[in-house]
Amino acid sequence: MAETTGTTGPPQTPGDQLLARHAAALDLFADRVHAIGADQWDAPTPCGDWSVRDLVGHLTTEQLWVPSLVRDGATIESVGDAFDGDVLGPDPVASWDTAAAASREAFREPGALDRTVHLSFGETAADFYCGQMISDLVVHAWDLSRAIGAEEKLPDDLVAFSVREITPYAADLAKSGLFAPAVEPPQGADEQTKLLNLLGRRV
């Protein structure tokens, strides 16, 4: 009799794992968006001068770009100012949900992760772009949690992935001016603290 491994279905490929993490990161941020109180949209966040609405607007815009870049092969120049300004409108939660669903669908199209996308810093592998999007969602989920008083503990797998993803180019992020310089983590810091310190957050 053949031995069984106790698992069902084909083994997950690296692409499957990446898509699972992307879905989990979207769900993580969505959970925080749906927890925002009606009186919290103007509350400050750890992101400089951004309010809660500004932060959610930024992440919504990031998701809106995905179908154009990944599915359509568009460039920054060809999209132009299509996603400039207020993308949240009168129902910011619904706007986020719609953009997130489109982003999820675009990355899950067959062959999507094997494509090349045209970003502001040049042609980039779509799977690398997906990894960037995951890390962005994870870190900003913490920002949003702190702003609205939600649970700040992030999933261990997403934290570990984000540390591996961001560490090689963390110094470049600080130079861009979009992130504060890294903070030296305290002795014995856990992985989440190290991730947040890497991107200039003081926990």
Biggest sheet features: 2 strands, antiparallel
Secondary-structure class: mainly alpha
Return the CATH architecture of the domain at 14-154: Up-down Bundle
Q: How much helix, percentage-wise, in residues?
A: 40-55%
| General form | globular
Distance between the termini: 55 Å
Describe the strand arrangement of the main beta sheet, using strand numbers.
1-2
Q: What's the CATH H-level homologous superfamily of the domain at 14-154? A: dinb family like domain
Mean pLDDT: 90
Order of helices and strands: HHHHEEHHHH
Q: Tally of extended strands?
A: 2
Quickly name the level 1 CATH class of the domain at 14-154: Mainly Alpha
What is the alpha-carbon Rg in Å? 18 Å
Query: Unreliable runs, pLDDT <50, ≥5 residues?
Result: 1-7
Number of helices: 8
CATH topology of the domain at 14-154: Four Helix Bundle (Hemerythrin (Met), subunit A)
Name the beta content range. Answer: under 5%
Question: Could you describe the 3D structure shown?
Answer:
The protein has a domain of 141 residues: Four Helix Bundle (Hemerythrin (Met), subunit A) (Up-down Bundle), CATH 1.20.120. Strand 1 and strand 2 form a beta hairpin. Strands 1-2 form a two-stranded antiparallel sheet. By secondary structure, it is mainly alpha-helical. Helices cover 54% and strands 4% of the residues. The chain is built from 8 helices and 2 strands. The N and C termini lie far apart (55 Å). The N terminus is likely disordered.
List descriptors.
2 strands; 203 residues; 8 helices; Four Helix Bundle (Hemerythrin (Met), subunit A); globular; single chain; 54% helix; mainly alpha; disordered N terminus
